[in-house]
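Same chain as my last thread, 241 residues:
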Amino acid sequence: MVWYYFNHALTRKLTSKNQSNRFLKMVKKGTYPGIEHEAPRMRWAADFLPVPPILEVNLSEHIPWMLTEEIRGKDGNHPNLKADPIRLVKMLADALSRFHQVPVDNCPFNFRLETALSHSKLRLKAGLIEPKVHFHPEFQHLSAEKAVEILHNERPSHEELVVCHGDFCVPNILFNGGALKGFVDLGELGVADVWWDLAVATWSLEWNLGTGYEDLFLKEYGRRADSEKIQYYRLLYDVVS
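reply #2:
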């Protein structure tokens, strides 16, 4: 058995005698995004994208859990993939392009700015935003109140809507060789501005691969850097989850 810790979530890899694997994911009740957010998104996404099949969900426990089948592949943080970072960056950009091809009109999950900013206000009121705990170093000089104020005052005037992954980080994308195999951690999937994913994806490249890959990723995806939107959506990412 293997345990994986990701922020507020705990995932356990279960291996049977015949070497088939399943994953048990547990998230403390009241945490966002929780199992109650992720399970319906995964079920919906299964009609459009490669995601882990859900075997069972239990929301009644103090720590809700979800059991899924394994997607056979290596996540983007695997040393074999990181050994050729240029190739990996191109694969990740292609994977995000595929994700964003899902029709917006079919998606029942909404994280447009109106929803996201309302969510940020609720988190602030509930005392759930802790900059020293939740914010990356770039934003830890801000208070929770100031961060939410910036998000409201500097809200972009236009949204280019796509179905966003919501947490498009290198370890959340699975590959087998050069082929995309699947997406995981879909608790924040929803219709949102394309820069919600682009800002987080390029940030994750820095965390996992080092600096110098952002421009290549955006070029492969088909965009030029928009520093204002990148900064805005990275702050939003820290505030809302």
